[in-house]
Amino acid sequence: MNINESAENYLETILQLSKTLPVVRSVDIANELGFKKSSVSVAMKNLRQKEHITVTDAGFIYLTEEGKAIAEHVYEKHQLLKGWLCSLGVPEEIAAEDACKMEHVISDESFNAIKDHVFKQK
């Protein structure tokens, strides 16, 4: 899966919003991320072209199977890295910010090693 950080952030945001909202729209994403609706519209067009999302005529956004797999993988990285950093004594807000950066650059090999280490500790 070769996808850039921005696309990963959008997919992760769609996943998170879909857990709390009945439907996800561009305006919801723009509000969540603090972006202009026009910027979100361009991003949604790109995600649609890559077949990571579908958009209904009413403007409802849904993750495709591939989009959902990417979003869930990024979200898993975020949650585990944030929790791990917090367990090391990093304040939650800083841990969340750092996890958001790390989730996009860490290799699957390194992430899996950290994940294995964290779960062996429990």
Fraction of residues in helix: over 70%
- What's the architecture of the largest domain, going by CATH? Orthogonal Bundle
Put simply, the count of helices is: 6
Per CATH, the superfamily of the largest domain is Winged helix-like DNA-binding domain superfamily/Winged helix DNA-binding domain
Number of structural units classed as domains: 2
Tell me the β content: under 5%
**H and E string:** HHHEEHHH
* Largest sheet report: 2 strands, antiparallel
Rounded average pLDDT: 94
Shape: elongated
Widest sheet: strand order?
1-2
Question: pLDDT below 50 for ≥5 consecutive residues: which ranges?
Answer: none
Structural class: mainly alpha
Question: Would you kindly provide a written description of the structure presented here, covering whatever features stand out?
Answer:
The protein has 122 residues and is mainly α. The protein has two domains: 5-64, Arc Repressor Mutant, subunit A (Orthogonal Bundle), CATH 1.10.10; 70-121, Iron dependent repressor, metal binding and dimerisation domain (Diphtheria Toxin Repressor, domain 2), CATH 1.10.60.10. It is 72% helix and 5% strand. The protein has six helices and two strands. It has helices at 5-20, 26-33, 37-49, 65-87, 92-105, 108-121, and strands at 53-55, 61-63. A two-stranded antiparallel ribbon has the order 1-2. Helix 2 (26-33) packs across helix 3 and helix 4 crosses helix 5 (92-105). The longest helix has 23 residues, at 65-87. The protein is elongated. The protein starts with a helix and ends with a helix. 20% of the residues are buried. The model has no long low-confidence stretch (mean pLDDT 94).
